[in-house]
Structures are given as structure tokens and as C-alpha cells.
Amino acid sequence: MARRSTLAALALTLVVGVAAPVAAQDSGDGTIPPSPLRLTTPLLSARRVPELLTSHIADTRLTTAVQGVLEESPDTTCLVVSDAGRRIVEENPELPLAPASTEKLLTATAVLDTIPLDERLVTTVVAEDTPDDGVLDGDLWIVGGGDPLLTTTGYTVAFDNPAQVWHDYAQLADRIEQSGITEIRGSVIGDDSRYDTERWVSTWPTRHQRQGFVGPLSALTVNDGNTGYADSPDALSGTRLPGDPPLLAAETLVTLLEDRGITVEGEAGTGRAPEGAQQVASLESLPVRDLVGEMLAESDNTTAELLVKELGRRAGGGGTTAAGTQAIGAALAARGLPLDGVVTNDGSGLDEGNRVTCDLLAELLDQHGPDSVLAGGLAVAGEKGTLRKRLLDTPVEGRVVAKTGTLNTVWALAGWVETASGKDLTFAFLVNGENPAGTTTQDDLVTVLYDYPQAPTADQLDPEPPAPT
After folding, report:
1. What is the full DSSP assignment across 178-210?
2. CB atoms within 10 A of CB 55
3. Contact 330, 342 (CB under 8 A)
4. Is residue 288 left, alpha or beta, with left meaning phi > 0 and alpha meaning psi from -120 to 50?
5. Same domain, yes or no: 161 and 269
6. Number of domains into which the chain is organized
7. CATH number, residue 190
8. Are residues 328 and 422 in the same domain?
9. Are residues 276 and 302 in the same domain?
């Protein structure tokens, strides 16, 4: 379709927009002498519209090169490549396919369109009683605000990624200490009532609960809701397993408080904070723009799913996955994006029943643009996030900004390539089914895109100047 449109425009321009032939001038006596010049480039030559010709040559060469990359891909493959919204390559653009973690592009769009970029999610600590000379004669509640990145040192050192973004849970203990409390004669209780208590999306394969790709979902979660850190928050643990998030958050806070000399008499527990309880301390999350960036760059499934529940709560449907996915659909529809065949069961892409099209992903990326907040949060080849160890020492290192996606039978990559000529090409590439080449095909694709455009320059194709007769 793109090729036919280009050729049609070329033909139309040749017919109605060509340069005039060299004209002879009236000699003054009513006669017109022969012109001393003749056209060296025919009037109906494609050289009369060099920009269109250059574009057509470049597009044709890119299409041929891309087909060479795709020749081993299964029929369940889609690809769209565009230049500032102008489609260059299209392969099954409207075919609904499982997106894996490129689903997070949809989640990010809905969050960025719904929640102010600088807003922060707040974890609060409240009590019914007022401390008397440092002594709280009652319970202390931690009320989760949906912050997905609360961690302790022992958990963060387990990740081989010094650039990973975290939020130090120990700061909350510091602020309780700063409030003047020295003794709690009741218990520390975790309250995660901001969202529902469904820890796993019901349509996920059960293996996700044991493989560590996502933690149990809760509005009050520390260390992704994993056990092994409550008693020794700053030590590396070898027993990391999914636990009860609000209880683990309460137990961990007890340890952190006792490390600061604050005694806690009661056992840690869970429950809803009483109405009218007074705030003792609070801890704000990173700004929403940074939460989205962490989700995209690191492909953090837990962050994605908690943001979905936050979307659901703000849309009025409660802090549930179902309400959140409906909010995602509404946000995409409000942008006028193509949603035929799209199925959204979660926000992370772990659900194997999700479906998107390359048409949708490419249009979504083009709407945001390569200088957008969304683009700034994506992984970067050889430098950042899930692409930091890929495409090293290649021409595209640092020039591919994209969202990766991988499941057992899904290989996905969508984002931008900065070409050698400085263009930002948008691309969306999904493969479902057997793909022995895996990410190698993706790397080959972006390398081919880097060379665009390969064509004579417009100056080289300008009409030749008239020559003497």
C-alpha cells in the first residue's frame, strides 16, 4: 500500500508539477528566434521530482532488506516500520498476536494519560493514640499506597544491575524514629486495603507463582512480597519465596525499628487501619514518570500490575486488575488508536491470552514520539534496562530505544532506531510460535533499519542544467 501511494504521487507530480521547458524570448520584432539551449533531462523524467524518487528508492531497498531478515520467521509474524508516521514496511500489520512485555507500552500510555507525571504514591503510618513521651500505647498501622519499588538492601544486592531503580523502605523507619516514638506497646499492622487481595491474575499460568517473574500483588509490598528478608533486611537471602505482602512489610518494619532502638511489644499482623487514625509518618514513592520508566526499562511485571490496579481505583472500579484493564482500553480508545482484535487481560504481558497488533503498537509509538516521556523510559541498546547487554559494539549501540518482550513462544521488540542519517524510525515487531533465531532476528532487523535511507541524494537526482543546442 505504501509503495503504490508513493508511485501514484510520483506520477501525479510528473504530470501536473514539472518544471517548464526552456523558453525562447521575443526578439522585439515579433519573431521568436530558436532557443540556444535544449533540455538535457526530459520533461517527464523522474529526476524532476528528486525527493520522491529518493524516498521510493530508499523504501524499496529497505523493504527488500527487511524481507531478507524475515524469511525464516513464521506466518504468525507482524512488522510495521514508519518514518514520522509514514509507513515504509508493513507485514501483517492488523494480525492480533500475543505481545509478551510489549503489553507494557499500553499500560504506560494509560498511566501517563491518567495520572500526573510528578504525582507520588504515599505509604503512610498511622495510630489511634498519641504517643506520650515517646511511648505509643497501642498499635501502629502501615497503610500501603501502591508503591511497587519499596525494598531493603538485602533484596537489591541480589540483582546484577547497579542502575536498577529502588526505593529504600528503611526511610520509613527513619521517619518514625524522627517522630519521637521510642516504644510501641501494641503491634505493627500492615494495611493493603487500597487494592483488592487477589495476589495473582487468575488467567496466568500457575508457574508464574513460583518462577519469580512477578511477586504477589498488594498495595503494601516490600521486596516484591518475597520472604527471606523480614528478620535480616540488609542481608542477602537464599530463601526468596512469595509470601503475604502486608504481613512481610509489617514484620520487616518491626526489624528496622528495633535496629533503631525502638521496642515493639506486639506481634506483627495485618488489618485495616481505623477511620480517623492520625498520621505519624509517611514515605512518598518516586514520581509516576519514574515508576513508568522503571517498568519499561526493566520490564518489571510487579510494577506493571500494581499500576493497573491503581488505574482501576482511579477509574472508579476499585483497585482490581479487571477495572484497570478496562481503564487501559478506555485510554487507548480516547487516543483513537486501532483496537480491532486487541485483548487486554493484564498490564504486564504475562497473560498468554493478550493480543495486540503491530498496527496498534506502531501508531501508539508514533503518537508519543522519540522525544516523549514514554521513550525516555525505554531500554537502550548496550546501555540501559533489558537491552543493556545486547547490541554491544555494534553501530546501533545507544541508538535503539525499545520495549522488549519474551515468553515461551513470543518474541517482541518495539520502539525507535536512530539511523546513520539521524532519522528516528519507528518499528513494531512481533513473532509468535517457533523462532529458533530468537533475539538474533530482532538484532538483525534494527541493524538493517540503521542503514536507512540507502539511496542517491536529492542533489544527485536534480535535473541536469540545459545544454547548448
Report:
1. HTT--EESS-EEEE-TTS-S--S-TTS-TTHHH
2. 20
3. no
4. alpha
5. yes
6. 2
7. 3.50.80.20
8. yes
9. no
Q: Are 155 and 164 in contact (CB under 8 A)?
A: no
145 and 265 in a common domain: yes
C-alpha cell read off for 14? 510528473
Residue 136 in domain:
yes
Backbone angles phi, psi at 29, to 5 degrees: -105, 15
Task: Identify whether 453 is preceded by a cis peptide bond (ω within 30 of 0).
Answer: yes
Strands 135-136 and 183-184: parallel
Q: Are residues 165 and 79 in the same domain?
A: no
Which residue has cell 500526573? 116
Query: What are the residues whose beta carbons fall under 8 Å from the beta carbon of 260, sequence distance 6 or more?
Result: 173, 174, 177
Long-range contacts of 56-60 (CB under 8 A, 24+ apart): 56/3, 56/6, 56/7, 56/10, 57/453, 57/454, 57/455, 57/456, 58/452, 58/453, 58/454, 58/455, 59/2, 59/3, 59/6, 59/88, 59/89, 59/453, 60/3
> Do 428 and 361 meet the contact criterion of CB atoms below 8 Å apart?
yes
Q: Which domain holds residue 349?
A: 56-113+293-450
Each residue's pLDDT, cut to its tens digit, for the chain (469 residues) gives 444 444 444 443 443 334 444 444 555 566 666 656 565 556 554 444 445 556 788 899 999 999 999 998 999 999 999 999 999 999 999 999 999 999 999 999 999 999 999 999 999 999 999 999 999 999 999 999 999 999 999 999 888 777 789 999 999 999 999 999 999 999 999 999 999 999 999 999 999 988 889 999 999 999 999 999 999 999 998 788 999 999 999 999 999 999 999 999 999 999 999 999 999 999 999 999 999 999 999 999 999 999 999 999 999 999 999 999 999 999 999 999 999 999 999 999 999 999 999 999 999 999 999 999 999 999 999 999 999 999 999 999 999 999 999 999 999 999 999 999 999 999 999 999 987 677 899 999 999 999 998 755 545 545 556 666 6
Grid cell, residue 131, equals 504517643
Q: Is residue 16 part of a domain?
A: no
98 & 130 share domain:
no
Amino acid at 115: I
What is the C-alpha to C-alpha distance for residues 366 and 84, in angstroms, rounded to an integer?
7
